[in-house]
Task: structure prediction
Amino acid sequence: MHWVTKGLSRYGIVVAYAILIIAVASQSDRFLTKRNWLNLLDQAAPLGLIAVGVTLCIIAGIFDLSTGSVFALAAVVAAKVAAIDPWFGVAAGVGVGALLGLFNSLVMRTTGINSFIGTLSTSIIFRGIALLTTSGLIVSVADRDYKTLGTETFLDAKLTVWVFAAVAVILGITLARTTLGRALYAIGGNPEAARLVGIRVGAVQTFAYVASGTCAALAGVLTSSRTGSAQADIGIGLELSAITAVVVGGTSIFGGEGAVWRTVVGVMLLQTIGNAFNLLGVDPTYKQVVQGVLILAAVSIDHLGRRRVR
Result:
């Protein structure tokens, strides 16, 4: 019985997702089609990129609520620079995300304020910069090369899907198989204990912020490439959707526990719920209710589990 409980604790999100797939497939013959799943994966890629970056932060015991704004500012910068050179525009957008992540880390380390409040504040700053940069207008890119990354396919799947998969694999291996990954878990579990054993807490958390900013920027650039445009108000609420996916996937909101593969499943579960609502003709308003219930359930289970351990 113990191994059953342990298995459900570790792979419960997979079981829940499998049940969801079976339930929706029984109600819609379009759900399991290749076209629907390719579309589902394409829609999941931007959120997935942001979520895997946020996973590193939450495991390390910090929050990054600026990802939606980083998403927008990176897209704007990429679109503007792409007017000069499309591939330099892509590099500039991703580079901006890394710099904004570094800025977040410097602010948190310098001021010592809570990362939740700190990154909420910087998100307002980043969004404001995006608004000033565009003057509230849409930035359009006519260059076809710039649109390649967001629209071209490989083995029938969009390049955005392959980018998401590559980033998830790289960060997943980093967390599970490297000294840096073990340091992220240690800091999230007990930062003081981690510091006492020689882990450079500030440097490791800086890596998490930079990774999160880079992932959010990459998502913004890919989205801008797909549409051929960018504006300051895109990505609003994405930071909360990303945290939702991370928590629903089973990563502890209290830090020190979780995995990238869990986040990927969490992202797909949320996207599948939205897809199911569309296929079955359910009012999309209920999607927010379902997501809220999932967050409450995930956090409650995590909290109760920690109380039992204590």
